[in-house]
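Case study 2.
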Amino acid sequence: KGRRGKYTGGHKYIFQMALSMLRAKTGYLWQKPEFSECLGKPLQAEAWHALCEKNRATLLDVYKELGKGNHFKKGRDPFHAIASIVALQHPIGALFEMVARMERSIPSTSQPSTNALHARNILLVKMLICNPLRVQQYAMMTWCADNTGNLYTGPDGEWRMRFEPVDFKNHYGAASQPYDVALSEWLRPDIDAYLSVYRPYFRDAAVSNSLFLPRGEKKGRTRDYLSAAVISSTVLKLTRKFIPDCPGFSAHAFRHIIATEYIKNNPNGFQVAANILHDRLETVMRAYAHLKVADGFSFWTAYLDRQIGSYQTQGAVNE
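Prediction:
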């Protein structure tokens, strides 16, 4: 708290984890009396259970008091790094321009091995624009030659993306149904080129079904896929490099930009935005409530201006 200046969601998570571990009978620590040896004074099971329950009660009191006092605050503003982008009427334009700059930065060489990393990163950014799922989905995304992966071709030859509910963070809530959607035709050339030309040049292409692969050998690395953390750090570097005057932002910010784009330009767009994000309508309305009045009112202003113009030129309003 001293470092952050406030209690954040991270503190809340620590409280919840500790309370869970100390819970009578089912808590992990409660079931491990032998851990008392780590305290320098081994305890019998009964004494250990009493200690766990006593400390859990103390923690629970503090946790409830912090909750009642509304002391848990957001640790950071998710819109801070993208404030200038979401302020635009069409925030998605900044992402389109980013992609264009990335494509212009590809070296003028005919060597696929040289351009493989550029092709992978461009496809990743384009897919985040078209399907702004949480970064974990992109880390776990597979492609298989037998068409059994998360990325696959549909019966009409279109590229599609699919996940089971259990693959999602919120699978007990908004993501309780399978996710199976057709991808934008904008992605087709990039997917085709990446899979047939560029992906084979990545280190584990012959043995891994992961769609997005690491570039090469790295000391201590054991993964044959790009982790969520690496994808986010990669996107941070790309946005910092290819969006002028931008401090950079991670992959999760694409969700905010895309949702803002749609809601700003569609007066009743909250449900569609929820579908795009694969999230609850209530969650989206709560997160983007700041857009509802200002941008909803802008539709009325535009409508009013059209009626005023019509009345001034025709002496009547538009039907």
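The chain has a mean pLDDT of 85.
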